[in-house]
Amino acid sequence: MNKRRILVIALSVSVFTNLLLFGYIAGLETKTLAPEQSMDPSYGFPRLLRALPADRKSELMSSISEHRRDLGGEYREVGRAQASMFRDFLAEPFDIERLRDSSALYGDSLCKARARTDTVFLHIVEQLTHEERKVLLDSAKHEWRRVNRDSQERKRATNKTDQDSNDE
Predict the structure, then answer these.
(1) Which residue of 17, 75, 88, 168 sits 20 to 30 Å from the alpha carbon of 136, by its own alpha carbon?
(2) Residue-by-residue DSSP string for the chain
(3) For residue 20, what are the contacts with CB-CB under 8 A and spacing of at least 6?
(4) How many domains does the chain have?
(5) This prediction's pTM
(6) What's the pLDDT tens digit per position in 131-147?
(7) Residue 46, domain extent
(8) 15, part of any domain
C-alpha cells in the first residue's frame, strides 16, 4: 500500500511537471502573436504618440480613432480572404487554380488595407510640427529597439529550450 501511494505521488508530480513545461513552451511559441504585433500597423500609433504632450496626444488620438473605425472593414476583408485561402489550401479535391485566385485576393486585400493604413499615418504626420515629428521618430526608434530586443530574447529562450530538449 505504501509503495502504491509513493507511485501515485511520483506519477502526479511527473504529470504536473510535464504540463508546466508544455505550458511554458506553448507560451513562448504563441507570444509572437502579441497584440502589439497586430496586422493593422495603426494599432501601434497610440504607443508612439505617448511621447507627445497629453493635450496633443488626445487631439491626434481622436483623429486616429475616427480613421481606424473606417479601417476595420478593410482588415475584416483581409481576414476573410485569408480564411478563404486556408480553406482552398486544405480543400479536397485540391484545385491549384482556386488557391492561386484566393492567394491573389488575399494579397490584394492586404495591400489595399496597408495602403489605407499608410494614408492614415501620413494624415497624422501631416498634423505634426517638426519638433513633434522628431519626438515621434525617437519614440519609434525606442519602440523598434524594444520589439527587437523582446524578439531576440524569445528566440534565445526558444533556442535554449530546444537545446535542453536535444540534450536529453
Answers:
(1) 75
(2) -HHHHHHHHHHHHHHHHHHHHHHHHHHHHHGGG-GGG-SSGGGGHHHHHTTS-HHHHHHHHHHHHHHHHHHHHHHHHHHHHHHHHHHHHH-SS--HHHHHHHHHHHHHHHHHHHHHHHHHHHHHHHTS-HHHHHHHHHHHHHHHHHHHHHHHHHHHHHHHHHHHHHH-
(3) none
(4) 1
(5) 0.54
(6) 988 888 888 777 767 76
(7) 34-167
(8) no
